[in-house]
Specification:
The structure holds two protein chains of two kinds.
Chain A (H helix, E strand, L loop, with lengths): L1 H17 L19 E2 L5 E3 L8 E3 L5 E9 L2 E6 L2 E2 L3 H11 L3 E10 L2 E11 L7 E7 L10 E6 L5 E6 L12 E3 L2 E9 L5 E6 L2 E6 L9 E6 L5 E14 L6 E14 L4 E4 L8 E8 L5 E8 L13 E8 L4 E2 L4 E4 L1 H4 L2 E7 L5 E7 L12 E6 L4 E2 L11 E6 L5 E6 L8 E6 L10 E2 L14 E8 L7 H10 L3 E2 L2
Parallel strand pairs in A: 2-8, 15-34
Antiparallel strand pairs in A: 1-3, 3-6, 4-5, 4-7, 7-8, 9-10, 9-33, 10-11, 12-13, 13-14, 14-15, 16-17, 17-18, 18-19, 20-21, 21-22, 22-23, 22-24, 25-26, 26-27, 27-28, 29-30, 30-31, 31-32
Chain B lengths: L2 H28 L1 H9 L4 H8 L4 H14 L3 H10 L5 H13 L3 H4 L21 H14 L2 H14 L6 H14 L2 H12 L3 H10 L6 H13 L6 E2 L4 H11 L4 H13 L3 H7 L8 H14 L4 H6 L4 H16 L8 H4 L3 H7 L7
The chains are: A mainly beta, B mainly alpha.
Chain lengths: ~475, ~350
């Protein structure tokens, strides 16, 4: 009997040890990447009524006896412990009950011998968000890859689907996936290297395209599909990677030449135009207006680089597009002048409802992801006015944004916090241009981002799942010949 | 089963267990650094054997140099290098790094296999192996150039089997502590706090509020080496980076020696003369290089000898080298024994093997 007890005790001890230690949440507080009392910082954010549970944890390393009381519309629920993790079904009920209203949260815990208390709210918007988000997971910053994958996350739950990955494509490089105006049935991305090409998804039909002809300085790089689906507008870029000598500024990328072109997906031809192929001007990041009648892009006078990097600033310009012939007209109008503002524009994106133009502003150049000064800027296209974005921007790089298909939500990759890893944040835009404090993509495990060592690159919203997966892309890579363009 | 049968079964099982444990112990005794290297990469011994295979004696020596360099035991790295000249880029890279850390890079440079500049800086590019990339940042960290130290640690992490090796996380934490980006450092320190006991201890000591006086000094010394201005440069502009470091801190003797040795190993004597300031560093190696330059450009006089600290003995030795060289019509066969470890011999006879 005595021996049995001893054995039982030993077994229990082993079991307890194997349960592991709780997460160590240090370091936290001012000067760290966890400066709010909860992580993610969901205090006073506005969220869509169809978002997955906003699980979080308390960051106070010395804290204990955590209690979280939540109230809305006469309902109440309580959580105990450092981690607050919702059951999905209960969360959905709460969101449905509180749509258009607020959820109030009371946080309390003991720390340093005193009881701490915070009251905060979650504002539930009426506008739903497109339920799908695609992004590429990649280590930050140095244009080197291993084990790349593009995922599609269902924002209404925690389910994730891999839509292209290294396993099926011989560990090839792949660039980010973009929807046209948030449409799941109209999207594209690039598979680079042998067997690769631009993968075009039109209504679930996949094509592999070589978007290059002899007159172009490079294959296509940045771009977007026209709302009608027949054309795409792209930049061609000679891209040079470089490093800053000052610690913390890391990698810089610049173009020594760049032009625009139009791809006619049905006619299998590439169209170039004198106005957007000038040697004395760098042109890049083209996108269509919501109605497809204009192309917005960034343009800068050509400079010798990297010598004049700090003087290279891109303006935002607009040029007519004729969807009947696929041609870019001229002249280009300057929408936002780099000369006047002494800053540089990147990544313009028009909202599918035609109302807004969201773009990135950095001090110089064309690669803002390592620029801590880089912020998002929102223009009202009805009158050209610039909205107040202080609620959105942080002290680290905010860029690579995209719109939901109704133009009421946008997502962007922000390096706020650690300054290294891009994470998707969502913000709501009201009809009067009021933007809300962004919230971080929720995860089932609130400590998910603590150990995440990859950036969410180019998060892009979609109103429906794309009709393919990694295995299909693997077949396209292996078996489908790339269509050449004239 | 009979009692006897059970006994035999137990004996067989015990023998199998004993053999397995014995084999593991024997492996660990023969390859202590392999296990430590695996641990630095965040994987178990078994996983390491699956990924990298069983190491031979040479691999164990290289891994030893990496592990000891990671702990900054430079004498030990040097001692391991002395066991055998492995004639490998990584082996020479750590041999040179340990000598630089011990203040004797130029004095020992010619004693070892030198695969041109690749023994000073491991190239990071499309044809580089993940193993070399993972090592490439060590020299940049010691030189005080955090942008490339961080880049190479990031790439090391990217190519490590589980993408979470503590070797890289610690380097990433420390480069950001040096540059003052404590938010970024916090990310890695938190990950290490949830790692092994050794990692937890290391991470706790790195919290700025916990810095000991020696650690505070270490960070201050590294900060003192960092460039004070920003210049955008290509990824492979090594001499330019070293000159940036020197313009920030003229007393960065390690950067100066690396620059001069880089010039010499690439046989760029003109660059060497341009970079060489005899008031800042001296070595028989530099005397030998200057004699080549002065002999070619016509400056073999007492004034130059005094300025460049060229001794009479070096001058006489150079004359002897030249005499034999001319007598044998440029053949090195009678020079190898006496001058095989001189810069003159390297300069005239070392041939770059581009396939390696």
């Amino acid at each position: 009997m005595k021996r049995s007890k001893l054995l039982l005790s030993a077994l229990l001890a082993v079991l307890l040890l194997s349960c592991g230690r709780p997460y160590d949440v240090r370091p936290a507080g001012p000067g760290t990447d966890r400066d709010s009392f909860i992580f993610p910082d969901y205090t006073d954010v506005t969220i869509p009524p169809n978002i997955a549970p906003l699980n979080f944890y308390y960051t106070d390393p010395e804290g204990k006896e955590f209690t979280t009381h939540i109230f809305a519309n006469g309902r109440a629920i309580a959580f105990k412990g450092r981690e607050v993790v919702w059951k999905e079904k209960i969360w959905r009920e709460w969101l449905a009950a509180a749509a258009g209203a607020d959820i109030t949260v009371e946080s309390a815990w003991s720390s340093g011998g005193a009881r701490q208390f915070r009251r905060w709210t979650l504002h539930i918007a009426q506008d739903r968000i497109d339920p799908y988000l695609t992004y590429r997971l990649i280590e930050p910053g140095f244009e080197v890859w291993d084990d790349l994958e593009i995922q599609e996350r269902n924002l209404e739950s925690f389910s994730v689907r891999v839509i292209s990955d290294w396993r099926h494509t011989g560990n090839k490089c792949m660039n980010c996936h973009i929807h046209s105006q948030g449409r799941g049935d109209l999207s594209m991305f690039y598979l680079r290297g042998e067997g690769g090409g631009a993968i075009l998804n039109r209504g679930g039909e996949l094509r592999k395209l070589t978007l290059k002809n002899d007159t172009m300085i490079s294959p296509t790089v940045y771009g977007e599909i026209h709302p009608d689906g027949r054309y795409g507008v792209f930049s061609t870029n000679i891209i040079i990677p470089a490093m800053h000598s000052e610690g913390g500024r890391r990698m810089e990328v610049f173009d020594t030449a760049s032009d625009l072109c139009v791809a006619d997906f049905d006619g299998k031809r590439m169209l170039t135009f004198p106005e957007t192929s000038r040697e004395d001007v760098f042109e890049t990041f083209p996108v269509f207006s919501a109605d497809g009648n204009f192309v917005y892009y960034c343009a800068a006078p050509a400079h010798p680089l990297p010598a004049d990097l700090y003087q290279t600033m891109y303006s935002l310009v607009r040029i007519p597009f004729d969807a009947a012939t696929g041609t870019l007209g001229d002249p280009a109008d300057t929408v936002w002048s780099a000369t006047k503002r002494a800053a540089s524009v990147c990544h313009p994106k028009t909202s599918p409802n035609g109302r807004w133009l969201l773009f990135t502003v950095a001090a110089y150049g064309t690669f803002p992801i390592n620029h801590s000064e880089c912020d998002l800027c929102l223009m009202d296209l009805s009158d050209g006015s610039i909205m107040d974005m202080r609620a959105v921007n942080a002290e680290k790089s905010d860029t690579y944004h995209s719109w939901s298909s109704d133009g009421t939500w946008f997502v962007f990759a922000s390096k706020r916090g650690d300054g290294l890893y891009g994470k998707p944040y969502f913000s709501h835009v009201a009809p009067d241009g009021t933007v809300t404090k962004p919230f971080l993509l929720p995860q089932k495990n609130p400590h998910y981002y603590d150990t995440m060592l990859r950036s969410f690159n180019v998060p892009d919203l979609g109103n429906a799942p794309v009709g393919f997966d990694a295995a299909t892309i693997g077949k396209v890579w292996k078996e489908m010949p790339a269509e050449s363009f004239e | 089963m009979s009692r006897k049968g059970r006994r035999i079964l137990w004996i067989v099982l015990a023998a199998v267990l004993f053999a397995a444990v014995g084999s593991q112990c024997a492996f660990l005794l023969r390859h202590p650094y392999f296990r430590k290297y695996a641990a630095l990469n965040g994987i178990s011994l078994r996983e390491a054997r699956d990924v990298w295979g069983k190491p031979d004696r040479d691999a164990e020596q290289i891994l030893g140099m990496i592990v000891e360099a990671d702990a900054e035991n430079w004498e030990k790295v040097s001692e391991l290098a002395a066991r055998k000249d492995l004639r490998s880029e990584v082996g020479t890279y750590y041999y040179n790094l340990s000598n630089a850390m011990l203040g004797r890079l130029p004095d020992r440079l010619m004693d070892y296999y030198q695969p041109f500049e690749r023994g000073l800086f491991l190239p990071v590019g499309p044809s580089s192996t993940p193993f070399k990339i993972a090592c490439a940042g060590d020299v940049w960290f010691q030189l005080g150039y955090m942008p490339l130290a961080e880049r190479d640690a990031m790439l090391g992490l990217l190519f490590s089997p589980e993408h979470n090796g503590s070797r890289y996380l610690r380097r990433l934490a420390e480069t950001n502590l040096v540059t003052g980006e404590h938010e970024a450092a916090a990310k890695y320190l938190r990950m290490l706090l949830n790692g092994s006991r050794a990692d937890r201890k290391w991470a706790r000591a790195c919290f700025p509020e916990n810095w000991s006086q020696p650690y505070r000094l270490r960070i201050a010394e590294k900060r003192n080496l960092m460039p004070q201005f920003d210049l955008v440069h290509g990824m492979d502009q090594t001499p330019l980076i070293l000159r940036i470091l020197l313009s920030a801190n003229q007393t960065n003797r390690m950067a100066l020696d690396y620059l001069l040795c880089y010039d010499l190993l690439t046989k760029d004597i003109d660059a060497f003369v341009g970079d060489f300031d005899p008031s800042l560093t001296r070595s028989p190696l530099y005397e030998e290089a200057m004699l080549i330059f002065l002999a070619a450009k016509g400056g073999m006089n007492a004034e130059n000898f005094a300025h460049y600290h060229i001794s009479e003995a070096s001058f006489q030795r150079f004359n002897r080298f030249v005499t034999i060289y001319k007598r044998d019509g440029g053949s090195g066969r009678n020079l190898t024994e006496e001058f095989g470890k001189s810069y003159w011999y390297y300069y005239y006879y070392a041939v770059k093997n581009e396939t390696k």
